[in-house]
Design brief:
Number of strands: 13
Order of helices and strands: HHHEEHEHEHEEEEHEHEEEEHH
CATH superfamily of the largest domain: Periplasmic binding protein-like II
Number of domains: 3
Distance between the termini: 51 Å
Helix content: 40-55%
CATH architecture of the largest domain: 3-Layer(aba) Sandwich
Shape: globular
């Protein structure tokens, strides 16, 4: 196995074509095809389903692609760290976050910082919740962003934003949902579809319902993505609860969810970092930026969305 094989897989998945992937990879198609075939043999299963008209990831390919992309991101991070070591004027900022984080908000906040500090390269690392604390402790990331229902215990934290929760009723043609909103205490008895748990959705929902002494009944199966939760709710398999940022714009089923009638149910997203940042001036500059500039930027974004 080598990094070129992994990059070939990512390019094929992106382009949906071996010939186009070979073109952007600056390789011949036989070279790319043989390299992927060798990798598939090593991994023990096919990554792509090939037909005369299309190329699609197999179920195994869907499972492996995020792991392959993670290896390539780690390569880029390593190269960036080496460049920073040899060029002290060039700094690296590593941000780890849960898949629940709203990337539009994150990018909106980071873009002005990039312009102010062109000497700082920002690396993203999307991680499961149980990985983030360990990565921060091992100094593999500089900051993490996590969803919480209550304020974190960590000393060094800062509220990033709040994302309201929406309820996705299980679709039924016979009994259409006539509610305009729901509270935690008056939700239907329909089981709620959850994920595998790594993103933090399940834990945050459990915490939210427990704090309000409400019962959350989980659907026995697990969805692999937020889109699957939407799809299953649309098919009537179960209900869903998702942050607004993770619901597709075309979804007309979602209804606002409240703790009480005048209190929207939300996930709070926090920045968390280690206490010792004095040796990294660019990290302290970023934290100062988050404390003073980011709230203004987010207020402007929220105002624009409201209009």
């Amino acid at each position: 196995m080598n990094l070129k094989q992994l990059q070939f897989v990512v390019n094929v998945a992106k382009e949906g074509s071996f010939s186009k992937a070979a073109e952007i990879s600056f390789a011949t198609q036989p070279t790319l095809s043989n390299a992927i075939a060798q990798l598939e043999e090593e991994l023990g299963d096919r990554l792509f389903q090939r037909t005369t008209r299309s190329v699609e990831l197999t179920a195994f390919g869907e499972f492996m692609l995020p792991k392959i992309e993670e290896v390539l991101r780690s390569r880029d991070e390593m190269l960036g760290a080496a460049h920073s070591y040899h060029n002290p004027e060039h700094k690296v900022l590593r941000i780890g976050f849960s898949p629940l984080v709203d990337m539009q908000r994150l990018n909106h906040v980071l873009e002005p910082f990039r312009q102010i500090h062109p000497e700082v390269t920002i690396f993203f690392k999307e991680c499961f919740i149980d990985e983030l604390d360990n990565r921060l402790h091992l100094q593999q990331i500089d900051l993490q962003i996590v969803p919480r229902v209550s304020e974190p215990d960590e000393t060094n934290h800062l509220l990033f934003y709040r994302d309201p929760l929406w309820y996705l009723p299980a679709h039924s043609a016979e009994t259409p949902d006539r509610h305009l909103s729901y509270t935690l205490s008056d939700l239907p008895s329909t089981p709620v579809i959850m994920t595998g748990g790594g993103c933090g959705l399940n834990g945050a929902l459990d915490e939210l319902f427990s704090a309000r002494q409400c019962q959350l009944t989980a659907y026995p199966g697990q969805a692999i993505s937020y889109q699957v939760i939407e799809d299953w709710a649309g098919l009537g398999i179960g209900a869903g609860i998702l942050p607004q940022a993770k619901i597709s714009a075309a979804n007309a089923m979602a209804l606002p969810l409240f703790c009480e009638r005048d209190q929207p149910a939300c996930f709070d997203y926090y920045w968390i970092w280690n206490s010792d940042v004095g040796h990294a001036g660019h990290l302290q500059a970023f934290i100062d930026y988050l404390q003073h500039q980011a709230p203004v930027l987010l207020a402007g974004l929220d105002a624009a969305v409201a209009v």
